[in-house]
Amino acid sequence: MDSSLRPELFNFLGVPMIHYYTNNWDGVQNFQARQDDILLATYPRSGTTWTSYALDLLYFGQKSQERQETIPIYARVPHLEATLPVKQPGSTQALIKETETADKLLTSPRIMKTHLPVQFVPKSFWEQNCRIIYVGRNAKDTVVSYFHLDRMTKMHPEPGDWNTFLQRFMEGKMVFGSWYDHVNGWWKKMQTYSKLHYMFYEDLIEDTGQEIDKLCSFLGLSASTEEKESIRSKVQFSDMKNNSMVNHTTFKGLDFNKSSFIRKGKVGDWKNHFTVAQSEAFDEDYKQKMKDPTLQFRTKI
Ligand code: A3P
């Protein structure tokens, strides 16, 4: 992947985006979901990979060891709106459209992920009444994790220094837009769409087994106790960090000298980044933006 140029953020239908996620807009909007598709939706850095892996293990862990050992998680679970640049022989560049990758998936169900705000989700997912899982994470840990991701990927705009990045996050000028709009938009969707399961990263940390149980019940799966225990152990942070099929070390375009994709896996790492003044200003601004008392995130557990 030629990642020499960092892309510009631009306003796309009211949401800041980069071209890697809008190049294939017609392909995304016209994507044909199937009834048994599972869509995993998240704001970036909220536990997407973790949940992707748990879902993949739930559906396919018993069926194919080869899948677990040879196919990276980002290929098993395509990122619907992404277009990924690849070098062709003769140094021309092509874009892989992940909608086409999803179309070619032979597995059933297909598990796909998206970072799109709820209003951009292809309408066929709603029409087909697909099961959708949303994972949210507290804003402070999300912005820290996002900062480190943007340091390591040239597919995103230059992060600048920490303080600049934090201000941008508070202003919603991030790839995929405002965290505040994202988590609230998806939360409100539950009022009108019953097949949406809203999870929290902090709950996954606190009691992974319980969250796997809830997933099974939402998905109508009856995994055995042993199977669930095996999944719980495989999705532990240290196991995932050392597993080259899920830790993204095979993903071109990430600079592992800058950070790790599976980085710390903690609730509260924000305390190592925010100054007291930054934290106070953030909390004040947060109160203005997060008015719905039914949606609560935990910054410590
Ligand atoms: P940190 O940068 O705070 O460590 P995503 O997959 O949506 O990009 O989210 C990435 C975040 O999830 C990173 O957070 C990463 O370390 C964390 N993560 C991934 N797997 C995890 C696991 N098994 N346990 C805890 N956190 C995990």
Automatic annotation (TrEMBL):
Pfam families, A to Z: Sulfotransfer_1
EC number: 2.8.2.-
Superkingdom of origin: Eukaryota
Enzyme class: transferase
Keyword check for Cytoplasm: yes
GO molecular function, one term: sulfotransferase activity
Protein name: Sulfotransferase
Organism: Amphiprion ocellaris (Clown anemonefish)
